[in-house]
Specification:
64% of the residues lie in helices and 8% in strands. It contains two helices and two strands.
Length: 72
């Protein structure tokens, strides 16, 4: 699977869900589409995790990067 942006992945995922919800997909094609959807879900999840890690850092005045903790 080519490297898609989060938005492109989500759009493809929505298209697959709509196609499967229509009920007009032969079983073998539905299985293939489901497999594609699961790969897109993994890709989206990985991108969200990476984004979460990136924004969970704070740069202090001295340039040090520290983990952001809401509870502090």
């Amino acid at each position: 699977m080519e490297e898609l942006s989060f938005e492109e992945s989500l759009e493809q995922l929505e298209e697959i869900v709509n196609k499967l919800e229509s009920g007009n997909v032969p079983l073998d094609d539905a299985i293939d589409e489901f497999t594609k959807a699961m790969n897109l879900v993994k890709l989206c999840n990985a991108k969200l995790n990476n984004a979460e890690e990136a924004i969970a850092k704070i740069v202090k005045d001295n340039g040090d990067i520290v983990d952001f903790n809401v509870n502090e």
